[in-house]
Amino acid sequence: MSTAAPPSAPIQSPLEPESYRKLGFLLLGLVLYAAVLMLPTPAGLSPSGQVALGLLALVVTLWISECVSPANSAVILTGAAVLGLMGKTLTPTGPAMKSADALGVMLTGFSSSAVLLVAAALFLAVALKHTGLDRRVALLVMSRIGLSPARLTLGAMLVGLALALFIPSATARVGAVIPIMVGITAALSLPVNSTLGATLLIVTAQACSIFNMGFKTGAAQNLISLDFLQKAFGHSVTWGQWFVTALPFTLGMSVVLFFAALWLLRPQVPDQAQAAAQLREQLATMGPVSAPEKRLIAVALLLLVMWSTEGALHPFDTTTTTQIGIALLLMPRIGVMHWAQAEKLVPWGTVVLFAASISLGTLLSKSGAAAWLAQQTLGQLGLAALPVVAVIGALSMFSIVLHLGFASATGLASTLIPIFIAFAQPLPVSKETAFGIVMIQSFVVSFGFILPTNAPQNMLCYGTGAFGTMDFAKVGVVMTLAGLALILLLSATVWPLMGVL
Predict the structure, then answer these.
(1) Distance of CA 281 to CAs 139, 140, 285, Å?
(2) pTM for this one?
């Protein structure tokens, strides 16, 4: 007599707990949004401004928890905004909005030239990867610089610098470099989590954050900050002006990173001959520079010249010149890729998130929510009575602490920059000084130095298993303290002489 086997318990997928966590955070964000809308409207805040604050609570929850993808968060944000804004006025004298009007408000970011610039620059990054030029540049730098601990550390920084000139995506830059750094470590017969492997990958991530600040086109958060600044103050910053302003800070932070990595991580390098041979072999495998690579180099150099001479030798802005460069790269015979090849590799979710972030920032500004929030937070601290340097220090500390909970500098910029603008405009300083105060904060939002979760490039490097959180944090704390000190020093000395403050 056979006995039926008892039914086996259902096997729980290891992904199910994670999916429940994500659903929980999504519901939390929606509950916070609804709770803000149901509260009595505070004095001095318009009903549309209350909706904007509810949306801010919603997207900050989504961004911090990463419970949905960036593109999904933009779609959720837009839908929630339309439902919240219907029947309300955007300005005190404006008409009540219908659904189409509310949707139009949330689509304003998609018409920003900054969004076109981000998309075009991402196409440039795709061209570099498609032709293999990014890998060739990295291999050339690392093979020429030498293989001592100091030279390898310097080489990792120089690779980051070279790629930051043309690739606005930190993730794309670091993604191109990680295999090379891991390969060098393996060629020296060292595990990836050796002192050398940890040093190369920590430096790769930290240098990426530094060079994000060094170039106007280095990161999307720069462009979103400048878009808000241009709308609020009526003038923009050229590529060259940004570069010159950021140069003393970038140089200082690079020096700090070089010595901090060598001092705190103490990388060790055994016999160097094998690694040098492997680098030469990889370069030889790539063969001579191909015709598409040569054409890409020509276009990249043309763009660099056009960006750096904007407003001096020609009247074209950064977006226009970049768009022309991408058009050249997509042309038959002249270019290096077809649209069908490029569109599959462009992270369109980043573009959508960027546009939605601009829309949210615009709503915070136009509805008066940013000014109200600035007054209720920063305004209560009595910062207006302090010297400009002290104001910059306080705002920087506020941004650094808040960044500990953010995984996206783009999200942090879209949250903080409108608030900083609303705070700076009424200060008893000149319009140029107020502009400079906020522009300096657009550097600080890239301070993702302390935790691996503070930036996507950190997480990419952390995912290799080369280092632990404590190793990253001890370098990151030094970088953050040095960065804050350098911000204060430059704000008191060099930047006023340059006319930034």
Answers:
(1) 10, 12, 6
(2) 0.78
